[in-house]
Amino acid sequence: MTTPADYTEKIPNNVSLHEDRRLQRALESWQPNFLQWWQTMGPTLPTQDVYLRTAINVGRDGWAQFGHVAMPDYRWGIFLAERDPGRKVGFGEHKGEPVWDKVPGEYRAELQRLIVIQGDTEPASVEQQRNLGATAPSLYDLRNLFQVNVEEGRHLWAMVYLLHAYFGREGREEAEELLHRNSGSLDSPRILGAFNEETPDWLSFFMFTYFTDRDGKYQLGTLKESAFDPLSRTCEFMLKEEAHHMMVGTTGVDRVVQRTVEVMREHETDDVGGLGAIPLPVIQKYLNFHYSVSLDLFGGDTSTNVANYYTAGLKGRWLEDRRKDDHQLTSDSTMVDALSDEGEIAQTEVSALVGLNTDLRREYIADCQGGVKRWNRILEEGGVRHRLKLPHAAFNRKVGAFAGIEATPDGEKLSAGEWQRRQGEWLPTDVDKTYVRSLMRPVHERGKIAAWIAPPRNGINGQPFDYDYVHLA
Ligand SMILES: [Fe+2]
Ligand SMILES: [Fe+2]
Asked: pTM above 0.85?
């Protein structure tokens, strides 16, 4: 059993921060900068309080508590999953050796880089979502938005803790930089492309939490395997919180599709555009966009950096211990996306180590299929023939083998001119975005919901949908 964090401390934590005064002071001096960032870049909608989950512990039973919290009183804590004293490195050239409690000098730069890249995504999504509260379709949804935002804030804390605790002055400088880069900024943008895109409406938010947060889940999954034990334990606990973000995305799209089906049936038409629901082709375009930019987040189809990370034990595979191979992969090969000599969409064989980004992307794609299947079941049950689908891996890519070509969602190669002419068939156009935005009128009344989305099946923490999840200021 672990003891719950002491919430009378300035920074609630389960890492015995009080035993390391220097570290505690360093983090306490970063804290006001974080709060300043939250004030200026975080959620803009003023509230009295929000019904939130706050992490208090990491144990199996009761790791969080729920209650109405005034936002200025929200407490971001530092939590690592419990230490497994017998844990061994699970892969790479150090396989079978005890895991590391400190950063080995030879891997310092790489580990710091991995932590900074992960850390950069956490505040980025809060920035992207900061104006959504003003157009929330219900208090339930508004509460979920705040929940996702405070937890992304806590994930930033998680990464900053590692930077401060293990990477000295450089780590502290990187921690400052995490607050200085901003999503969409021209001078100092966030590191990864998808985190500089706008999240201007709630359909985008649900697609983002489904597709882009899910990328985060897979990245955290690989870092959870790390031989650097504090990173592993941090990511393990973050994954627990991430599950809720996935739920928000999955059920959010469920509810949009559900409502569209209802309006289609009610009016016996496919064309629900004028009827206050979101047409299925528009939902498909949003899906195409968020899925394709999220595929880019996995990096190049081949990567020697990632091969080196794996061999060094810094970053493993998704569910490494369930893989039935030698966990070193020095003599294995795999197929990855590539262009043929003629420039056609193809695959090529590479060493398994170099293809690890593809391995992770493959796991992710299989997971995304699950969402599409579930949304199509809603269509089927509603008696609608239309189906949603994931676009081809070559569609709308800016990173990897297909970055240099254009293709339809069916994977048919297009000339640049044709792409220019036809991309509006597959990606949200200004007309689509304007229509979706026109639906985004706030419903901040208890128990009420906007007309473009169905209510959720369940409320939060056993509360009903019409619970007073948020008290507006
Ligand atoms: Fe996160
Ligand atoms: Fe998340």
From this structure: yes
